[in-house]
Design brief:
The complex is a heterodimer. Chain A has 13 helices and no strands. Chain A has helices spanning about 35-55, 60-75, 75-80, 115-150, 155-170, 170-180, 185-195, 200-215, 215-225, 230-265, 275-285, 295-320, 325. In chain A, helix 10 (about 230-265) packs antiparallel against helix 12 and helix 11 packs antiparallel against helix 12 (about 295-320). Chain A is elongated, with a radius of gyration of 24 Å. In chain A, about 45% of the residues are buried. By secondary structure, chain B is mainly alpha-helical. Chain B is built from 15 helices and no strands. In chain B, helix 6 (about 130-145) crosses helix 8 (about 185-225), helix 9 (about 225-235) runs antiparallel to helix 10 (about 240-250) and helix 11 runs antiparallel to helix 14. Chain B starts with a helix and ends with a helix. Classes of the chains: A mainly alpha, B mainly alpha.
């Protein structure tokens, strides 16, 4: 991977996660069985080093803590809340617009539904939309970025022009137009956010692919007769992967914010109540002008904290994985 | 590459992007479920298959797609966007025309305010890196970034217009002016300003973090340059180093962002205009979503995009004059 005559790499803490080949004596003898095993052993070590560096970042750990809290809330929603209290036809709901009480911790909305229950179940919708939309965005961004960076030429020109187009267009207006034309369902919201949020990723991935492609070991592999497919999946992708990962975490935050904005504008799925939908209901019912603070604060704070959590995790990972930031 | 080639290239690029938006607009609104003709007539007594066919013919929807596209491009160039689906008998241009001024007034002023305040905050936190002020402004920026701006708007609305707990309801709950008051002269100006205070405040706070962050990072980059050290070494006073040597160069990266946000004035405040019922283009967008007024929505999308594309072009061109390195390249 590197010439042997330049001496040991400087032992700076920032360098700890560089995907560096292990020297032969570091590889346990039983792992010498196959090249794949060696690769996996190396990746496992790289991941362990990443985790070690990550643990040192207070920002990253706080973000991770908040994130785990929200995931637990989403997973155990049926255990920590009574789903019936958000069904307006159930007799177990309260009076309309009750302020917080021991029975309804966050009060009730204009249909007597428990704001607490709705906030807890909203975590599922917001996380689902955030993760699914990000997945779409990552796949598009990574494909376009790698194709443009690796192949170059007219393909790169064309793909980058397309990326610039999407980057320039005002995303909210584009998302509104798409969502209002295509219909109002969770799947469409996910799709719309996915196809409006990939250009940033594509640019970052392309830049990294461009730099990886010129490294000597890629050239060597090509000289040995590797196909494009082999080069991309075995050399480019593993090196671009960490950057895509850091970017993914940041994109989830943006996707959750986007979902809440679209839902607030009435483009959400009326059947699955997200935090944005709750804010839409609350605003339409005049909660802001009549001072129903218990209806506005829980969903809004939930959005703020989950976005903060993803952003903090993303920044912490980016500091470790982004070669550009490492140099600073 | 000479200046002329650079300029022509940028202009061509902007033109192509605009064409892309136009084509996108054209096809999107023709694949949507429910064609415009039935949408126009639905809910009226004239809703029957024959009338829908007649309406299709009148709108030119029975023609082949390429011909429709040519007609559409011609109409768009003449700023004719057809008739609003909802405001019967009113053209889309008329519906939109009334809303431009309120948006420019509100979003324009708050954009400028957020640029000035944001840059000053960024300069101060970069210059005093690691100070309480720096950490405070970074934390604030992160928090504002994570906050949906419409939620912040609702909280401000609740506190200062609705009045809750200790907060006094001192501002109007929304709109552009007091309805039915028919004020003139200075009284009218003050009335509008009174309605503008809350949305102006919310937008300014929501936007300034971005400028502060970019200015801070740019300032840190420039402060590490050798010429700054030279300036200090020859005994230039600290305030002079900051304002005469560091800030002018650090402003360069913020220029593009500034120009771009001017392009976002038209379409940048959709949710806030909605929260404060400010009768601008953003509020019209939300109303058009609710009413399924695709004709208006289509035109709004085009205007929003064209503004951003134009601002982008201006940013590229002016940047060339600000940064000689671009010209030399």
């Amino acid at each position: 991977m590197r010439p042997d005559n330049i001496g040991p790499l400087p032992e700076t803490p920032d360098d700890t996660v560089v995907d560096e080949a292990l020297s032969p004596q570091e590889i346990p003898p039983e792992r010498l069985a196959s090249p794949r095993a060696i690769t996996w052993a190396r990746r496992k070590r790289a991941f362990a080093r990443l985790a070690k560096t990550y643990r040192k970042s207070p920002m990253g750990m706080w973000g991770l803590g908040i994130l785990i809290f929200f995931v637990l809330v989403a997973v155990f929603a049926p255990l920590i809340s009574d789903k019936d209290t958000m069904d307006p036809t159930c007799t177990c709901t309260g009076a309309p617009l009750e302020p917080p009480s021991s029975e309804f911790w966050f009060g009730t909305d204009n249909l007597g539904r428990s704001v607490y229950t709705m906030t807890v179940w909203g975590a599922r919708i917001s996380l689902t939309v955030g993760l699914a939309a990000t997945l779409i965005s990552m796949v598009i961004g990574a494909l376009i970025g790698i194709a443009a960076g690796y192949y170059g030429g007219w393909l790169e020109t064309g793909l980058m022009r397309l990326t610039d187009w999407f980057l320039v267009l005002p995303w909210l207006a584009l998302a509104i137009v798409l969502a209002s034309v295509l219909g109002r369902s969770l799947a469409i919201i996910i799709l719309v956010i996915g196809i409006t949020s990939w250009p940033g990723t594509a640019r970052i991935v392309r830049a990294q692919a461009l730099s990886v492609k010129t490294r000597p070991y890629v050239e060597r592999s090509r000289a040995l007769g590797s196909s494009n497919w082999h080069l991309i999946t075995r050399h480019i992708l593993p090196n671009v992967g960490p950057l895509i990962f850091a970017n993914t975490i940041l994109t989830v935050a943006i996707a959750i914010l986007s979902e809440s904005t679209l839902a607030f504008l009435g483009l959400g799925d009326p059947l699955s109540i997200s935090w944005g939908t709750m804010l839409d209901f609350a605003f339409s019912a005049g909660a802001a002008t009549t001072g129903k603070w218990w209806w506005l604060l829980p969903p809004g704070l939930a959005i703020v904290f989950i976005v903060l959590a993803f952003t903090m995790c993303g920044f912490a990972l980016d500091e470790i994985l982004n070669p550009k930031l490492r140099e600073r | 590459m000479g200046t002329r080639t650079y300029l022509l290239g940028k202009i061509l690029q902007a033109f192509l992007t605009l064409l892309f938006v136009l084509a996108f607009n054209f096809f999107l609104f023709r694949v949507m479920p429910g064609d415009p003709a039935s949408l126009l007539l639905r809910g009226t007594s004239a809703y029957n298959p024959e009338n829908v066919e007649a309406e299709k013919e009148r709108l030119g929807l029975d023609k082949p797609l390429p011909q429709q596209f040519v007609t559409y491009m011609g109409n768009t160039l003449r700023l004719e966007f057809g008739e609003s689906f909802v405001y019967q008998g009113q053209s889309v241009s008329e519906v939109i025309g009334d809303k431009v001024w309120p948006t420019v007034l509100l979003v324009g002023t708050s954009t400028i305010a957020s640029i000035v305040i944001g840059l000053l905050i960024g300069i101060w936190s970069g210059w005093r890196r690691g100070s309480m002020f720096d950490y405070g402004s970074l934390g604030f920026t992160l928090f504002v970034y994570a906050m949906p701006e419409f939620w912040f708007g609702m909280l401000v609305l609740m506190a200062f217009a609705g009045g809750v707990g200790p907060f006094p309801a001192i501002f109007p709950t929304g709109g552009y002016e007091t309805v039915g008051a028919d004020l003139t002269g200075m009284a009218h100006v003050f009335d509008v300003l009174n309605h503008m205070v809350l949305p102006f405040f919310v937008l300014t706070v929501a936007y300034l973090g971005e400028y502060a962050l970019i200015m801070r990072n740019s300032l840190l980059d420039v402060m590490a340059d050798d010429y700054v050290q030279t300036a200090r070494a020859k005994g230039v006073r600290e305030q002079q180093v900051l304002w005469r040597h560091v800030v002018p160069n650090a402003l360069l990266p913020t220029w593009t962002l500034t120009m771009l946000s001017l392009g976002f004035i038209f379409g940048g405040a959709i949710t806030i205009e909605y929260v404060f019922s400010w009768p601008g283009l953003g509020y019209l967008t939300v109303q058009s979503i609710e009413a399924k007024d695709y004709a208006v929505l289509q035109a709004l999308f085009l205007i929003f995009s064209a503004a951003v594309i134009f601002a982008n072009l201006i940013a590229d061109i002016t940047y060339m004059y600000l940064d000689p390195r671009v010209r030399a390249a």
